[in-house]
Specification:
N-terminal domain of TfIIb; 14% helix; alpha+beta; single chain
Length: 107
């Protein structure tokens, strides 16, 4: 597993600027070096497992790597989360089955 977490006590100190708005622009994924886009904290929080959430001081400031072959799903600074840290299958990642939405409305 590629996850590197700081404990809540280590990460959250007075003056720590961890909890910030959605990151702007794109940054390089630390694993594959491709450009990654910032995500909203509420999106990140909804997809990450409870076990992984418990190791984070906040949910802000994460980026999403959409490269299919890259094991990194979300990252921030030295923190890297992989598919094993998610509570859902990330469809763009290699080996994940695409989700299908069925319209069951009848006319």
């Amino acid at each position: 597993m590629f996850s590197f977490f700081k404990s809540k006590k280590e990460s959250k100190t007075e003056g720590d600027n961890c909890c910030t708005p959605q990151p702007k622009g794109k940054v390089e994924c630390p694993s594959c070096k491709q450009k990654a886009k910032g995500v909203l904290a509420k999106t990140f929080e909804a997809l990450v497992s409870d076990e992984s959430k418990s190791k984070l001081s906040c949910f802000d400031g994460f980026y999403y790597c959409k490269t299919p072959s890259c094991k990194t799903v979300y990252f921030r600074d030295t923190q890297i989360l992989t598919q094993s840290d998610m509570n859902v299958v990330v469809g763009l990642k290699e080996g994940a089955s695409p989700a299908t939405v069925l319209n069951q409305q009848r006319y």
